[in-house]
Structures are given as structure tokens and as C-alpha cells.
Specification:
This protein is an alpha+beta fold. The chain has a single domain (5-250), classed as Jelly Rolls, CATH 2.60.120.620. It is built from 7 helices and 15 strands. It has helices at 21-37, 51-61, 110-116, 120-128, 192-199, 254-261, 266-271, and strands at 39-42, 66-72, 93-100, 134-135, 143-148, 154-157, 164-170, 174-175, 178-181, 207-209, 216-219, 225-228, 231-232, 237-242, 244-245. Helix 1 (21-37) crosses helix 4. The chain is globular, with a radius of gyration of 19 Å.
């Protein structure tokens, strides 16, 4: 079945597939919002009438989600016994989630079709103003689905990458709000007192978003502290993640692939300079 992306993406509202004034105005507004807030949401990017098909696709692949549970601080680093217990580097929280790897989104996948749509990546690149912008070559990680269930959530953290591009597909019955404190740190200033204040409950400059199915979010999370509040109810939360990188042909490490997706492919071993006969799943 050939998928026509324009049937899914609301190109009347978001004319990203054609040059012209409307696209230029849209991009200018996006750039301003990202510069100011570090976060831009395109409400109803996917047509509401087609959301059910994305939910069905997510339901089909959810069984392949790899679940992992750990405790982490906002920086994904090890404990620092030389620092006070209240320091952000020493504040650890439970983190639980599941990711469906990219190789479950094949030729009949709507999400894969959006990612591969010739108009999509240039639009995202232009919005972010990134000079180096390439599709992620990792066969487990270019298009993935985050699956979160009751009790799951993402505690406060900074991303290890500069930006994320996500599509909301289904919300849990309650919880799952996206909260962020924009521009809390910089490349030259970690602002630990400011981070500690948020961790201690200061919400004075925290923005709360309730993303709805079909919303496309572009978020600069390396310098903005953020979290997803715990979920409740029997309905899982589905969010698709579209991944781009700064170097062509890039794939993840074997350690990261195993942690996030529960398995390692020969390409991960080869790129890491390891022997494929050492690959054990």
C-alpha cells in the first residue's frame, strides 16, 4: 500500500511541501518561538481524522517495546560523593520507559512515510537553523515509538542531544504533561542553583504543555530542563520520535542500542570496531 503523506499531514495549515510566502511565514514564526522558548508545537500537524490509523499502527508494534527501568539524575551521570546531597548531580529519580525500535516501522508504516517524506527533513532543518542535518543511519533508531504506561514518566532531565522532534499519537487517561524550564543552563554555565530550585519545586518559570494527538513538537532539550509527569490509567501514551544527527552515516554505540532497544545489530559492532562474533543477544 502506497502512503500519501499529504493525506495525513495537514498541508493546508502547514504548507511545508511547497515554497512560497506561507511556508516562509510559518518558518519565521517557528524560528522566533524556538529562539525565545526553546520549544515549538505545531498543533494538529497530523489531521485529526487520521489519528486513529497512527494509534492502530502503534498498537500493532507495542508488543515489541523494550522496557528499561533505572535511576538517574538530570544529567545521566554517575553519583558524586564529593558533593552535598542536595546538589543536582546527586539527585536521582526513578526512570521507566519503553521504546519500539525503528526496524518495526517498514514500508507500510505511516510514521516511516512521514520521516521519509522529502518535504519533512528540510522543514525541520530550516526551523532549527541547523547547517549540518542528516537522517540517523541507525537501523534501530531513526523512527521509534516511545511507549509509556501507568506509573511511567520521565523525571527532570537535560537531553544529551541538541533537539528532539516528536509527534504525539495517544495520551494516557491522565498525567503525561510535558513540563520544561527553558534556557536553564548554557554551554558555559551549568547554573546548578537554578536547577536545584526547580528540583526543589520552584515552578515559577516552568511551562506546562498538554500535547494532543497529532501535535508535532520541536524541542531544544540540551539546555532546557524538562520532564513528563507520571501517567495513570489503562491507556498507554504513544509518542513517535524522528531522529536526525549532525554527521552522515552515524549509528549508535552497541551499549546504547542494547540499553534502549534490547539488542545489537552487526552494524553497531562494526562501527565500534568490535567483532560481530562477540554479538550476543
Amino acid at each position: 500500500m502506497e502512503i500519501t503523506v499529504r493525506d495525513y499531514v495537514d498541508t493546508d495549515r502547514y504548507p511545508i511541501d511547497r515554497d512560497g510566502t506561507a511556508r516562509d511565514v510559518l518558518l519565521a514564526a517557528l524560528r522566533d518561538t524556538l529562539e525565545r522558548d526553546g520549544c515549538a508545537v505545531q498543533k494538529g500537524f497530523v489531521r485529526s481524522a487520521r489519528i486513529a490509523e497512527l494509534v492502530q499502527e502503534s498498537d500493532r508494534v507495542a508488543v515489541h517495546g523494550h522496557r528499561n527501568f533505572n535511576r538517574t539524575n538530570a544529567y545521566f551521570t554517575q553519583d558524586r560523593a564529593d558533593l552535598p546531597a542536595t546538589h543536582p548531580l546527586r539527585r536521582f529519580y526513578d526512570r521507566s520507559n519503553a521504546f519500539v525500535p525503528a526496524d518495526h516501522f517498514g514500508a507500510t508504516s505511516i510514521l516511516r512515510a512521514i520521516y521519509n517524506w522529502p518535504a519533512f527533513a528540510p522543514f525541520i532543518q530550516a526551523a532549527l537553523g541547523e547547517e549540518r542535518f542528516f537522517p540517523y543511519a541507525d537501523p534501530l533508531a531513526d523512527v521509534i515509538l516511545n511507549l509509556a504506561e501507568a506509573g511511567n514518566g520521565f523525571p527532570w532531565h537535560f537531553d544529551t542531544n541538541n533537539y528532539t522532534v516528536t509527534l504525539a499519537i495517544q495520551n494516557a487517561e491522565s498525567g503525561g504533561e510535558f513540563e520544561y524550564r527553558a534556557h536553564l543552563r548554557t554551554p558555559t554555565d551549568e547554573n546548578y542553583p537554578g536547577v536545584q530550585a526547580v528540583l526543589d519545586g520552584d515552578t515559577s518559570r516552568v511551562v506546562t504543555l498538554r500535547l494532543e494527538p497529532g501535535d508535532l513538537q520541536i524541542f531544544k532539550g540540551r539546555y532546557s530542563l524538562h520532564r513528563v509527569t507520571p501517567l495513570a490509567g489503562s491507556r498507554p501514551r504513544y509518542v513517535a520520535i524522528f531522529s536526525y544527527v549532525e554527521e552522515p552515516g552515524l549509528v549508535g554505540s552497541p551499549e546504547r542500542a542494547r540499553q534502549l532497544y534490547g539488542r545489537v545489530l552487526p552494524i553497531h559492532m562494526t562501527r565500534a570496531g568490535l567483532r560481530n562474533d562477540a554479538l550476543v543477544d
